[in-house]
Amino acid sequence: MAETPTPKPMTLEDKLGLLTYKNDHTSHIKIFDANVCLNCPNKPCVTGCPAGVYNWDAVQKKIVFSHENCIECGAARMLCPFNNIEWNPPRGGFGVSYKYG
Amino acid sequence: MADDKFDAIVVGAGPAGTSAAIVMARAGLNVALLERGEYPGAKNVQGAVLYSKMLEEIVPEFWKDCTGLERAIVDERVFVLTDDSALQMGFKTTAFQTEPANSYTIIRVNFDKWFAKKAEEAGVTLVTGITVSDVIKKEKQIVGVKTTEGDELLADVVIACDGVNSILAQKAGLHREWKSHEVALGVKEILALSREKIEDRFCLEGDQGSTTEMIGDITKGMLGYAFMYTNKETIALGLGCAVDDFQRTNIKPYDLLEELKRHPMIRRYIQGSTSVEYSAHLIPEGGYNVMPPLYADGMLLAGDAAQMINPTHREGSNLAMAAGRLAGETVIEAKKKGNYSAQTLSLYRKKLEDSFILKDMKDHKDIEDEVRKRREIMSIYPKMAVEAAHDYFLVDGLPKRDHTKRIIKRALSRRSLLKMAVDGWKLRSAVI
User: Fold this and answer.
1) How far does Cα B309 stand from its chain's mean position?
2) In B, which residues are within 8 Å of A87 by CB distance?
3) Is the whole-model pTM more than 0.90?
4) Is there a contact between A99 and B109 if contact means CB atoms under 8 Å apart?
5) What is the reported pLDDT for B180?
6) Parallel, antiparallel or unpaired: strands A29-31 and A85-87
7) What local confidence, expressed as pLDDT, does residue B202 receive?
């Protein structure tokens, strides 16, 4: 049977599932002040982060993040219009390890 | 601690750092090369195109044993894309194939591992899995670095080659945080496909390689472009757009990448491939106008950490290698004088100004700002070009003169002649 030319859609989870991580129990990401996010109109960290690390929790009314999914581009710092995200490289040897890069 | 003191500490085992380390070690300096990844390359992402000239100046005849090389690039293409069409341009020549080729596609991690090994062979002390968190200052002079584990390492000079997210340059007070319009965010997938299929689909013989840059609707009006590079048994497919545009539009980078994979002009190239890696990285695109100071007392900056990129020409790692070499040479001279003050190290700036690096960066310094002032051209011109090509090739029973009139009329309805002339003048340095 001929292959369909359109590739199967991949979810972000599929994409992240291809990667190897060494998880650190301490987070290399911090939100300085959760209240700042309340007044952030379009929350670009949620959409712009290429690993979907940041999510808006409608119940808790705050940004929740999963640092263990971070692929270490560092964009979060610049995506946040209020400079409210602290991002440092993970400790030595921790985090994502690319095989192709 | 005196035993631990190095002549130089280089932070970051990428193209800039490894180049600097090799040059200094060969001159007999005691050099430490610190890398935060578990192995060199673990944290690094590139398209990736490697230009031979700058590497050859550091590792002569590198092509004979460099394990990172994939294909010699003989075909350079540009696609102007709309949703259903592509205006395709390109330059193909076997002249670029003669060893060393003008450029190669590389698997960046393999390349960085190989390059770091060359540094070790030259006598460099390579330490991996070590994240530098701060500089150590003695009065004004930088005299070493601190790690996240609390260790301290001392040296006469520190070269910060820690990439676009250079924590070190900020800690040293050399620059502020980048702004969202000064960096682009790139996402990429590595798609595995048989060698035979790649060579057939891209019309390549043996280890010939091809690159395709794509502009137009695929970035949805955001400032950026997509790319498709052939490796031996993989295709690198990705795109990069300005972070302020991602911020403004709420477009998800991975969704955009999925759209690219399904684009009717792209999907056939990658049909039947398997994605083996997804990656993301920042690209410093503020350029010359936002470059931090390149030297301080006891410190030099090179590569992405210093915004050394020429995005108009898809160049970056070559600037990094050349700058790393010049930084290394500057330190060698400083050691002869026994003086590592900013004044002595300012020689580095002079060397960069005499090289292609700052010349190219100066020539292209305003392009992105000019495009930003007229963002709409990111979609107007691709549309115009594709419509013109469509009408040029269309046979519909009307005389050609009517087609020509229609092309001109439609173009002018999209942008006035005056505006087009101004665009052309303001953006001329993109092509010359």
Assistant:
1) 6
2) 165
3) yes
4) yes
5) 97
6) antiparallel
7) 98
Q: What is the DSSP letter of A7?
A: P
Report the pLDDT value the prediction gives residue B1, as an integer from 0 to 100: 42
Distance CA B6, CA B26 (A): 15
Closest partner CB to B271 (pick from A5, A73, A92):
A5
Q: What is the CA radius of gyration of chain B?
A: 23
Is A90 in the B-facing interface, judged by CB distances under 8 Å?
Answer: yes
What distances in angstroms separate CA B234 from CA A92, B91, B133, B193, B230, one per listed residue?
A: 30, 22, 36, 5, 6
* CB within 8 Å of A51: residues ≥ 6 apart: A12, A16, A69, A70, A71, A73, B280
The domain locations on chain A are: 31-97
| Angle, CA B341 vertex, CA B340 and CA B344 arms, to 5° | 80
CB-closest option in A50, A78, A98 to B41: A98
* pLDDT at residue number A4: 73
Query: Is B274 near chain A, with CB under 8 Å?
Result: no
**CATH number for the segment(s) A31-97:** 3.30.70.20
Q: Which CATH number fits domain B182-284: 3.40.50.720, 3.30.9.90, 3.30.980.10, 3.30.390.30?
A: 3.30.9.90
Q: Is A99 on the interface with B (CB under 8 A)?
A: yes
- As for the ipTM of the complex, it is 0.96
Is CATH 3.50.50.60 what the domain over B2-68+107-178+287-354 is classified as, yes or no? yes
Mean pLDDT by groups of 10 residues along chain A of 101 residues: 78 98 96 97 98 97 97 98 96 95 97
Enclosing H/E stretch for B16: helix B15-26
CB contacts, 8 Å: B147 with chain A: 92
Put simply, the answer to whether B275 touches A96 (Cβ < 8 Å) is no
List, for chain B, all residue ranges whose pLDDT scores fall below the cut of 50: 1-2
Strand pairing report for A29-31 and A54-57: unpaired
Asked if B280 is an interface residue toward chain A (Cβ–Cβ < 8 A), one would say yes
- What is the per-residue pLDDT for B2? 44
* DSSP β-ladder status, B31-35 and B125-128: parallel
pLDDT digits (tens, 9 = 90+) for B172-220: 999 899 999 999 999 999 999 999 999 999 999 999 999 999 999 999 9
B361 closest CA partner among B422, B300, B429, B281: B429
Q: Residue ranges per domain, chain B?
A: 2-68+107-178+287-354, 182-284, 368-430
